[in-house]
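Changelog-adjacent note: as of this version, every example in the card shows the full chain rather than a window. The one below runs 56 residues end to end.
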Amino acid sequence: MFELDEITVNGLCRHEEWQRIRDRIASDPSAARSQEPPIEPREHPDLRDLFPDETR
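Full-length structure tokens:
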């Protein structure tokens, strides 16, 4: 309809379990691989801010 590739959203809060996963990945990025399914933190929209110095 609008031919948009992306739509920016701002979350107001995070689910408790997701926040625990996010915190774990923030302190140890390799923890993302132990998630089921594995998460690529540099590709996930809610994790990109944990890696600000890296090019996307």
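Structural remarks: DSSP finds one helix and no strands in the chain.
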